[in-house]
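Morning. Coffee machine broken again, so started the prediction first thing and wrote up yesterday's gels while waiting. Chain of 217 residues, entered below exactly as on the submission form.
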Amino acid sequence: MTKKHLGVLLLEARDADAEVVTKELEKAGFHAAVKRVTSTGEFSKALREFEPDVILTDHGAPQFNTKAVLKVARSVRAQTPVIILVDKPLDDTAGDVLRAGAENILSKANLAKLAPAITSALSARQPLQKLTGRQIEVLRLVAEGRRTREIARDLELSIKTVESHRQQVMKRLGIRSIAGLVRYAMRVGFITQTPEPFEAKLAANDRTSGATAINLS
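Came back before lunch.
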């Protein structure tokens, strides 16, 4: 069986835990190039130089803060999934971590779920390869709740061109509604929560049997 190549940025302070994660990736059939770092400074540098396919980070180590790590990851590599590894359940803070941009939260005691979680995360982002850089920009701005006129102004494009890009994004991603675009953007890390101006509109859109009911002009 051909092993799947995978670039992994691992933020983990404990040697033993890092070794267990690396062995689990190998066991799951990944040919993993693991770049391990032990501080937020090293993490930020590695994000820019290593270009990982996935980021794995320990939660709870005194050397770094999970939300700060997620913020740096979003700013440098928004499309790269971040999976949080925990020693014990997060309970009340789990929702906060997910809303901050984490792809998933997994227990170190059950790393058998790690490979499926990585595969799912990468699969969700695979369609982005069908988009041009400009189309990704338009997707991000639409998901942030920006209107067509604002996007056209900021990107120095005509309104018609922006509308064309948006239509192509929806076609290439197989998404039929703006609500779907927003949810997809959240799923792949472009945004971490539904933009306030869209909340009521998205709810209304869900009640219209998938029709594109949001006016972006």
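Residues 30 and 202 are 38 Å apart (CA to CA). Going to sketch it on the whiteboard this afternoon.
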